[in-house]
Amino acid sequence: xxxxxxxxxxxxxxxxxxxxxxxxxxxxxxxxxxxxxxxxxxxxxxxxxxxxxxxxxxxxxxxxxxxxxxxxxxxxxxxxxxxxxxxxxxxxxxxxxxxxxxxxxxxxxxxxxxxxxxxxxxxxxxxxxxxxxxxxxxxxxxxxxxxxxxxxxxxxxxxxxxxxxxxxxxxxxxxxxxxxxxxxxxxxxxxxxxxxxxxxxxxxxxxxxxxxxxxxxxxxxxxxxxxxxxxxxxxxxxxxxxxxxxxxxxxxxxxxxxxxxxx
Length: 263
Fold this sequence. Notes:
Elements: E1 2-5, E2 8-22, E3 36-43, E4 46-50, E5 53-57, E6 61-65, E7 71-73, E8 81-90, E9 102-105, H1 110-121, H2 129-153, H3 156-168, H4 175-182, H5 186-197, H6 201-219, H7 224-230, H8 236-247, H9 251-262
Antiparallel strand pairs: 1-2, 2-8, 3-6, 3-8, 4-5, 4-7, 6-9
């Protein structure tokens, strides 16, 4: 369905949802990139990897997985495992205020209640199809709120670092440079980022640079060469390789796909 907001329009659709129950020894199957996924753990521990980032999630923890990276299970579960899940697609995840490729811990049972509501609507012929989409959007909006609250509780050094990265994202930032500037070992900062944001420092920097690249591609008519320079790349080819590796599509195709969706 198409959603109109003050900043423009975007599309959203909940593709599927359910509750999974698995026995000891279960491993999450390989999944191709293409759709977003949210997982809410009920029982056991889920061990999986998205792209280059490993995750372990237990009861009450939520994984929000990107549509741009493949995902697969790692260590088999050592006991019974259960979780809610939902696959969705959207033309603009930022419109939901949602951070993807991350793990968060919930503070109450609100997300579990919203998942139950989603499952009540999904696949029921006596409800319109849009009911499940709206239920899924409510679930994701609540997830985004939990993410924001978790970010506010993180240590001051992380808030300072993320703000510095935001202000300097158009420069060629490295994890080593961040560690040197803030007088912390990069490995320690990586562990801290994984604890609070679910991804390491290097992955966080990449995520922010890619978001800025997507913003330039969507909102400007600047040539790819100029965008590469604006983001601190020494050449357009390096930017194209970087963007294509992480997003699975070239900058030009990403821009064309965005404009096609608006037409």
